[in-house]
Amino acid sequence: xxxxxxxxxxxxxxxxxxxxxxxxxxxxxxxxxxxxxxxxxxxxxxxxxxxxxxxxxxxxxxxxxxxxxxxxxxxxxxxxxxxxxxxxxxxxxxxxxxxxxxxxxxxxxxxxxxxxxxxxxxxxxxxxxxxxxxxxxxxxxxxxxxxxxxxxxxxxxxxxxxxxxxxxxxxxxxxxxxxxxxxxxxxxxxxxxxxxxxxxxxxxxxxxxxxxxxxxxxxxxxxxxxxxxxxxxxxxxxxxxxxxxxxxxxxxxxxxxxxxxxxxxxxxxxxxxxxxxxxxxxxxxxxxxxxxxxxxxxxxxxxxxxxxxxxxxxxxxxxxxxxxxxxxxxxxxxxxxxxxxxxxxxxxxxxxxxxxxxxxxxxxxxxxxxxxxxxxxxxxxxxxxxxxxxxxxxxxxxxxxxxxxxxxxxxxxxxxxxxxxxxxxxxxxxxxxxxxxxxxxxxxxxxxxxxxxxxxxxxxxxxxxxxxxxxxxxxxxxxxxxxxxxxxxxxxxxxxxxxxxxxxxxxxxxxxxxxxxxxxxxxxxxxxxxxxxxxxxxxxxxxxxxxxxxxxxxxxxxxxxxxxxxxxxxxxxxxxxxxxxxxxxxxxxxxxxxxxxxxxxxxxxxxxxxxxxxxxxxxxxxxxxxxxxxxxxxxxxxxxxxxxxxxxxxxxxxxxxxxxxxxxxxxxxxxxxxxxxxxxxxxxxxxxxxxx
Length: 692
Ligand SMILES: [Ca+2]
Hints:
Layout: H1 3-27, H2 38-50, H3 72-81, H4 85-115, H5 118-129, H6 132-138, H7 144-161, H8 169-180, H9 182-198, H10 207-224, H11 230-235, H12 245-264, H13 290-307, H14 313-331, H15 336-339, H16 346-365, H17 371-418, E1 424-427, H18 431-437, E2 440-443, H19 452-458, H20 460-468, E3 478-481, E4 494-501, E5 515-520, E6 541-548, H21 552-557, E7 561-563, E8 578-584, E9 587-599, E10 602-608, E11 615-621, E12 627-631, E13 634-639, E14 649-655, E15 664-670, E16 681-683, E17 685-691
Parallel strand pairs: 1-2, 1-3
Antiparallel strand pairs: 3-5, 4-5, 6-17, 7-10, 8-9, 9-16, 10-15, 11-14, 11-17, 12-13, 12-15
Helix pairs in contact: 1-4, 1-5, 1-17, 2-3, 2-18, 4-5, 4-7, 5-16, 5-17, 6-17, 7-8, 8-9, 8-10, 9-10, 9-14, 12-14, 13-16, 14-16, 16-17, 17-18, 19-20
Bound molecules: calcium ion.
């Protein structure tokens, strides 16, 4: 490679990095800050590695995989080992991003040069560098830039090694890629399949990267008992209750359309002076006609490879891009943070766009000497858009950094000074609050705290049940939350508002409401554990089991399931569970907090029983809907009781002893209806009593 290209790309990258840095410092009033709170999650895990407690978000906790990258926290940890300190890590992460950007630009330049010619490589390198979203992700302090760099390294190594079929560096870089992100594991699987089936090379060494990628999955399973990463549990529709294949397929399909039509075409999106990372900014991602030229590029490279009967880097790039994006459509069809999960695939798309431009010019100019100038002219149109979008994102980046500085970072520093050292703090943004505030935190979204992610996916009620079930020593003293994300206000848990951290112009924060610090009121914790009003009906009976609806762990232990009368509302029209604070219909002096589920179809559970003894089922509810009682799939009768609107009632149903035949009994409670009308029945708690 010629030295001048190294100098050229490095100079441009440094200049662009400088502009982004200046924008950050301008908007944050001279402070270093990342554009996302999640960056601090990485810093926290990296810090913990240096303290000898890797994967523990709070020292002493069970390990978590909240960074969703096995490798990158270790790379960041090197920074701490070099002694750069708590704030220095930000500069270190930016420096790493810059190095990755330079290396990536040289890699993509060389891919273009090898595939086409030097000019095309140059244009490709420039289109890569002048893409504001790509720059944003390199300077976000997280693993995205490094991940992109590894994908390009795999492609370039493959390009060099595929002729002789002796792969060393391809496998090395693919292994690093697989260690960097779960998508890297998917891509390494694609790479293996591509070599093995599409190129018919029986090369089992390509299983090595897959093996490396699996390490993190296995670790995640060992840490959490689930194959799903904490981030996925919190963010993916796959982890929503009652998600189903039909709806997932439809959501994934629609998201795919959206990426191709709205993002890659460069045509969609409205003009809006607002700069908000979480929606409606597709207009500034790519230039118009990008998809057209991308498709031409696929035709140009892949057709050639098919004609030559040996699939090469073009087909590989296409497979990686399409399957990589498809995996995101299924797992994370999200729009927030400038669609940041999609960004690592943009360089692959750019390769096709440039190939398409070249083919287009060749077809138009038909062998004349004008090909090169025409190509450069046409490419200049796209470079112009690239420069404009870089300008936009340099500002967006600065404003995002400003948000994080003024909200999460200031908050973290405030906690350090104002909250007792032994306090427990529950948060919805776990990054800076922990890294700078350094208190014991409980992450209500479940990235840094295991298990609670499933509650988050179920709704505010399950979160209440999760917190209530904690060891009281770990009850949060403070909530630091966007109150609109939860319903703690409805159940009287927000004892005192201590402080608000408000953004005037929010550009990336998850809520426009201020992040607020509250003291927590626990006085009604466990108030809902026992039967409160129908004890006289249970004389001579003793408790044999209970199902606390909304408590995910308790539900799991009882094989609890619920279903909807009109399924498929898991996404968008989600039946969220909720927590309620009511008094009883027939005794207003008893106030109880309990969470439960909105049931429209029915529920089933398996409970411990004593065979042959009469069973009384007690249900805490706030609604009246007749329900059918089925015991071990035998219909027993219809359960009716008094109505309690915005109050609790406890209803009792008696199952004769002859119907209880084993130590485990399956109870099924479908809503009773003749037509599938829409009823909602609120279910909060079941107790099972049998004759003593
Ligand atoms: Ca409950």
